[in-house]
């Protein structure tokens, strides 16, 4: 009552509010204030665990996730529209900027599509070099993934070891292609330059070096019980869901869905090598982790099979300065480090495509996130995001 | 009981992991890839093919190899290269011939895709190894690659 008397004085807004608060403080209301309640929180766009500008709108109840809504478009650059303006040589360098961690494989996809349309005969040397560099790109991408995967679940040192081994690959790329990340080494018709004289020596050195490092990766992170408890049984994706969501790459293979483009539609020199598709059936975060570690071994074996006998010959077939594709539709798919990457070109016979569509693996892999993260904790979501291995420019394009 | 065995396993695997990190802690100098960058400037050498910036080499007579064919300008996806050209009189034949006035290179727009250098028929432009391109004013990133008063090297045809 003392408060109410004070309130009779005009212009005291503060006490007014106070009075309202005390009036509503009935016993039921106090209890309902501590009732569990859903609320929304933004994760990103600058969150380090999303590896880029991805905004996740989380509906959470305490720490339990009820709903995940990805909000895309922060780095949309309209690459597909730019392709309608550019010539076919220029399109290749734009694909570097999509999935920048497997830039060489993206380049290869566009080049293969253009070469198939022109019915060019590509020399064996080009095919072998493209495959070697593609597999090295895959290893480099998985090295980075392994480093940040450990860091996401709380092990900082993995980051340094992953980047140490990736540095050797970056040196190989820099020496041969001239750039470390956005290489633009493939051109329609072959390669921009022949391989550097040191290339074979350096790759062999890397292979022997890296063979001693993957067991170290296992000892440091895979066998760690704390890591296994964080990842086993988290974010389980069944095989049926993986197929119906259109998931590809290591994420789908961890659910037991055999979908390796390198096996089923081999391109370049991949039909000459033998390798196993790494498959797991558990479908959880730990299975996705193991599939990628297994892929490191497989990629190393592919590189080993090819590096000793790179055939002699031309490194480039001469094409016209202005490449004009015949009228029609052309399609090519490749397996990047994240999954199935497709290029679909509709040409009307002019120097640039009428419409060009990229099917990027990251977009489909992201679509599964709401399905597998609901019911888990926020800490699980970070682990799931790490093994989905998203590259955001690939999703937004 | 599994509670204690979990703790035991946790500590055991943690120590296994720490044996890896401990090995590198003790032999950190061997195999270190970190470069002490500003201090090692004198010895730091980039690879031959490193794409730092586009440069136009000139010989001792202040002559370059650019004929002004504009192939690089056409192939560039970003409009990085701008060639301002003129028609001059060829001294030998007396005919009118294309010659460059200014070869303008906007480094700020360049994505280092190497298409211009790939397409150049006379190897007039090459990659420079300089990578320290930070400046205080962005107008400094627009460069004229040909030297003032420079001429086309005799005998270069496209």
Short key terms for the protein model shown above:
heterodimer; A: 397 residues; mainly alpha; Cytochrome-c3 Hydrogenase, chain B; three-stranded antiparallel beta sheet; globular; B: 158 residues; alpha+beta; Alpha-Beta Plaits; 2 domains; two-stranded antiparallel ribbon; 3 helices
List the helices and strands and how they pair.
The complex is a heterodimer of chains A (397) and B (158).
Chain A: H1 2-7, H2 13-24, H3 27-33, E1 38-43, E2 55-61, E3 64-71, H4 79-85, H5 88-95, H6 103-118, H7 124-152, H8 157-177, E4 186-187, E5 190-191, H9 199-222, H10 225-231, H11 239-244, H12 250-253, H13 261-264, H14 285-307, E6 328-335, E7 340-347, E8 355-359, H15 361-367, H16 369-373, H17 378-388, H18 392-396
Antiparallel strand pairs in A: 1-2, 2-3, 4-5, 6-7, 7-8
Chain B: H1 2-26, E1 53-55, E2 63-64, H2 71-75, E3 81-89, E4 96-106, H3 115-119, E5 126-128, E6 142-144, E7 151-152
Parallel strand pairs in B: 2-7
Antiparallel strand pairs in B: 1-5, 3-4, 4-6
How does this structure look, described?
- The complex is a heterodimer of chains A (397) and B (158).
- With 397 residues, chain A is mainly alpha-helical.
- Helices cover 51% and strands 12% of the residues of chain A.
- In chain A, the strands form three sheets. A three-stranded antiparallel beta sheet of chain A has the order 1-2-3.
- The longest helix of chain A is centred in the middle third of the chain and has 29 residues, at 124-152.
- Chain A is globular, with a radius of gyration of 26 Å.
- With 158 residues, chain B is of the alpha+beta class.
- Chain B is elongated and about 100 Å long.
- The model of chain B has no long low-confidence stretch (mean pLDDT 84).
- Chain A binds chain B through residues 86-87, 89-90, 93-94, 96, 155, 157, 161, 164, 167-168, 171, 174-179, 182, 184, 187, 192-193, 196, 216, 219-221, 223-226, 321, and chain B through 6, 9-10, 13-14, 16-17, 19-21, 24, 33, 47-51, 71, 75, 77, 111-115, 118-119, 127.
